[in-house]
Amino acid sequence: MSDLNSATKVAAFYQFVALPDYRELREPLRAFCAGLGLKGSVLLAQEGINGTVAGAPEAIDAFTHELAHGDMFGGRLNNLELKFSTAEAMPFGRLKVRLKKEIVTLGDETADPTRQVGTYVDATEWNALIAKPDTLLLDTRNAFEVAMGTFEGAVDPGIKSFGQFRDFAAIELNPAKHRRIAMFCTGGIRCEKASAHLLARGFTEVYHLKGGILRYLEEVPEAESRWRGECFVFDERVALGHGLRERDKGHCRDE
């Protein structure tokens, strides 16, 4: 992976946490990001925060320190899921801080990751879990993302948006039949919602890859990897490979 101090630094982050004052947080957060020269997208909702921003390494460090330790959130983001990568050039055109009903849209009020989620599995333990023959390996991402890369043997739900995952689960998944489910997504956030949804529906043994595909590609040596292809990311880098390296720019963008 590139030296984090030699290129534009990218921070992807989220946390499910009660933010009843999320509307009042929007402008202070936007102003703080703008003052640091950051670009990217941040979503705020009553259920938490989700975003990806990019900028100079020292600016990203100041930003993430404020989230976790500053006065703006008052220590509420003390369990922030945070991943760093680099980009050869700024991967975003502008800065957006938006208010949303959900930080990842599923449309199921019973799916509350602040109350219950599946069992987190570290990247280094993922291969052993998915190698078990009675484990249903489930990709929770959209179809065009799956087409660019996925884990060997994973089930593609064939959805166009994450909100369709509920319909897929209702039709295709059965607690009596699928006793152990291991799911994954890009950075982990969709799996938090999906696992909470399945637990609310009566599934009991639900696992998800902590930190998502990005953490796996960062930590697991390529020679030991069960990942095939590239991981789509929602910025101008398009996709990342092992070591969180940017994809070959000769590839065309396929959306």
From TrEMBL:
Catalyzes oxygen-dependent 5-hydroxyuridine (ho5U) modification at position 34 in tRNAs. It comes from Bradyrhizobium diversitatis. The gene is trhO. It holds the Pfam family Rhodanese. The keyword Oxidoreductase applies. Its EC number is 1.14.-.-. This is tRNA uridine(34) hydroxylase. InterPro entries: Rhodanese-like_dom, Rhodanese-like_dom_sf, TrhO, TRHO_N. SUPFAM superfamilies: Rhodanese/Cell cycle control phosphatase. Keywords: Oxidoreductase, tRNA processing.
